[in-house]
Write a structure and sequence with these properties.
CATH superfamily: lambda repressor-like DNA-binding domains
Order of helices and strands: EHHHHHE
Shape: globular
Number of strands: 2
CATH class: Mainly Alpha
Strand order of the largest sheet: 1-2
Strand content: 5-15%
Distance between the termini: 10 Å
Structural class: mainly alpha
C-alpha cells in the first residue's frame, strides 16, 4: 500500500479569518507554531484531536479542511 498524503487548506483559512497568524492558530488549538508550519507544508499528519480542534476553530468539518491524497 502506498503512503497517503494529507493536504489541507489551513493557510487559506487563516487568511480568510482576519489574517490569523500561525501563532494565533497554534494558541487556539493547543500546539506549537512549528506544528502549524509543518501542517501547512504537508509534512505532518495531525492527530485526530488536533484535526478536530482546527476544524472547530474554523467552524468547518475535518474533511472540509483535510483531504487524503492517495
Amino acid at each position: 500500500m502506498a503512503k497517503a498524503e494529507i493536504q489541507n487548506s489551513i493557510r487559506k483559512l487563516r487568511f480568510e479569518h482576519d489574517e490569523m497568524t500561525q501563532q494565533q492558530l497554534a494558541d487556539r488549538v493547543g500546539c506549537s507554531r512549528q506544528t502549524i508550519v509543518l501542517l501547512e507544508q504537508g509534512r505532518y499528519a495531525p492527530s485526530l484531536a488536533l484535526a478536530l480542534r482546527v476544524a472547530r476553530t474554523f467552524e468547518q468539518s475535518v474533511d472540509e479542511i483535510f483531504q487524503l491524497q492517495e
